[in-house]
Specification:
The structure holds two protein chains of two kinds.
Chain A: H1 3-7, E1 11-14, E2 20-23, H2 28-46, H3 50-56, H4 60-66, H5 75-106, H6 115-130, H7 133-144, H8 148-172, H9 177-184, H10 189-223, H11 231-240, H12 244-272
Antiparallel strand pairs in A: 1-2
Helix pairs in contact in A: 5-8, 5-10, 5-11, 6-8, 7-8, 8-10, 9-10, 10-11, 10-12, 11-12
Chain B: H1 2-10, H2 16-34, H3 44-58, H4 62-65, H5 73-101, H6 109-124, H7 127-138, H8 142-166, H9 170-179, H10 183-213, H11 226-234, H12 238-268
Helix pairs in contact in B: 3-12, 5-8, 5-10, 6-8, 7-8, 8-10, 9-10, 10-12, 11-12
The chains are: A mainly alpha, B mainly alpha.
């Protein structure tokens, strides 16, 4: 019985067959109270004001309106950065997703029996996951210079962090029967892993990798803002010059690309599962 | 026994043509994407800078880290949490009508498809473009950050909502019908109990992501911890950047721990 139940005792009910059952008091008031208090605090700190939104909300569409007839002629200059973005995200996703495999293996309790080692590995993966991608990209531009290599690195680090967690959870829920059977007939641990665990994990691993790639293409478009190459670079430039029709063109091409990639990847993922 | 094993092994299902084709495509794509990488700009200075960054992060500026004024890390973190919290809530509300409109089991196919395209378009526009648009509305500051974050959350949140709505178990509704419940009771006891745990879990997960992505807002001056962090990094003040990063990492780790526990509880009931 938790503290909450002691303060608000559960309701007793007698059923028609003489049995008594306890109906615990609803947690809703407590949760609602916390949410309302936090919302009030947030409203105060962020200066949330519906009045401003009502009064000046139409200003939001001004820039959108200026993009409206997109500058079609600009499209010829968009292809290269667009392909750079794609290349960055593809290479980054593959590098990240492949390098994380041994780390994910070491972070699964059913492969490594040492709890301390697993804990340290998981903490490491968590910390990498908390690093904002933008910060990774900025650091990468300092280390590798401005350009696509920095973007690729940032995306690889992000994919590493994202896939790591999913992969070790996946490995842990795999059926260990086949693994043990292979060990019993004399296979080494690595061989048993390759033949027994990988076939179970692979479909969802590839599916998650594809999903991550979809998101990375979008994210790669932001990375250019800090100089990490790709679409963000020209997007930032055109926004700076206030050439909104060109911005509209860039966004339309990005949208079409993302749509295409999502369609292909959804088809692949459906085939995998 | 051994013969049997060997025979079974020989007869294992093989799909060579398919595998070779897929591998060839993937390899070709990888080589193609490798052409974008330009290593010429890396040099010794890069390694040196990396060293500086790491030493800065391990020697955070303690004065900044424990400074309780409006410029200190604790207040900035609080502001970031508030932006992420309210932004997530606003985004979660905005996503509800969109996701009901694009659930294929409730709406006719054309409407669902068009709404999906709209959601995808909303998702495609990068965060800093939204930031610039909202600055016209509410000026630089935390409010702009909140609005930006809420619009950026719509895409993912509505995607997860749609999945929850499409997984609705309609047999429960039928049995409630058979018991003679009216529409309101059907929504209250048939639909809400199925949706709320899923929705809440999604929103908490998105809150996690928003907290992590809050640095993006700093690019356009939309409040939170992003701007000081990026300024510190651009000015090579690694100790300050280290202090902010340490604060951010600790905060995200704590929030993630709590939110994972809540989500596990929601999933198991």
């Amino acid at each position: 019985m938790s503290i909450y139940d002691k303060i608000f005792p559960p309701k007793k009910m007698v059923l028609s067959n003489g049995k008594t059952v306890l109906k615990p008091a609803s947690r809703l008031p407590l949760i609602a109270l916390i949410l309302v208090l936090f919302t009030a605090l947030s409203v105060k700190i962020t200066g949330f004001d519906l009045g401003v939104l009502r009064e000046r909300g139409s200003q939001f569409f001004v820039i959108l309106g200026m993009m409206a007839p997109p500058e079609w002629g600009y499209s010829t200059q968009v292809w290269k950065p667009l392909f750079d973005t794609l290349k960055m995200s593809l290479l980054g996703t593959v590098i990240g997703a492949v390098t994380v495999i041994p780390f994910a293996m070491a972070a699964s309790t059913n492969i490594v029996k040492n709890n301390a080692a697993v804990g340290i590995m998981r903490l490491f993966l968590s910390i990498v996951r908390t690093l904002p991608t933008l910060v990774t990209a900025l650091i990468a531009t300092y280390v590798f210079g401005l350009g696509t290599l920095a973007g690729t690195t940032a995306i690889a680090v992000f994919t590493f962090a994202y896939m790591g967690k999913i992969l070790y959870e996946e490995i842990e829920t795999a059926d260990m029967g086949a693994f043990e059977a292979m060990e019993a007939i004399g296979a080494t641990k690595v061989r048993a892993f390759v033949r027994a665990i990988i076939p179970q994990v692979l479909p969802s691993y590839i599916s998650n990798g594809l999903f991550c790639f979809e998101g990375n293409v979008r994210y790669a478009a932001i990375l250019g803002y800090v100089g990490a190459g790709g679409l963000g670079l020209i997007l930032n430039e055109k926004l700076g010059w206030r050439e909104y029709p060109s911005v509209g063109m860039i966004l339309i091409m990005l949208f079409v690309t993302v749509f295409f990639i999502e369609t292909v990847s959804r088809y692949c993922r459906r085939k995998l599962v | 026994m051994n013969k049997q094993i060997e025979k079974a092994y020989e007869e294992r299902p093989r799909n060579t043509v398919y595998q070779v084709t897929v591998s060839a495509i993937v390899l070709a794509l990888l080589i193609w994407s490798g052409s974008a990488v330009d290593v010429s700009k890396t040099g010794l200075s890069g390694v040196q800078i990396a060293g500086n960054i790491i030493s800065g992060i391990f020697h955070p500026d303690r004065k900044l880290l424990f400074n309780l004024t409006l410029q200190g890390v604790p207040y900035l973190l609080l502001e970031t949490v508030c932006i992420a919290f309210l932004g997530t809530i606003v985004g979660a509300f905005l996503a509800i009508p969109l996701s009901f409109l694009s659930a294929s089991n409730l709406m006719p196919a054309p409407i669902a498809y068009v709404t999906r395209l709209v959601i995808m378009a909303v998702r495609t526009i990068p965060a800093f473009v939204y930031g610039l648009m909202f600055i016209r509305v509410s000026g630089p500051g935390a409010f702009t950050g909140l609005l930006t974050m809420s619009v950026c959350s719509i895409g993912m949140v509505s995607k997860m909502y749609i999945e929850a709505i499409e997984d609705l178990d309609t047999r429960i509704l039928e049995s409630l019908d058979a018991c003679g419940c009216n529409t309101f009771q059907k929504i209250r006891y048939g639909i809400l109990p199925q949706l709320i745990p899923n929705f809440a879990s999604t929103v908490i997960y998105r809150f996690d992501i928003n907290l992590r992505d809050a640095t993006v807002l700093g690019l356009v001056g939309a409040g939170g911890i992003g701007a000081p962090l990026i300024f510190a990094m651009n000015a090579y003040r690694w100790n300050e950047a280290g202090a902010i990063l340490v604060g951010l990492i600790l905060l995200v780790l704590i929030v993630e721990y709590i939110s994972t526990r809540i989500r596990v509880k929601l999933a198991r009931g």
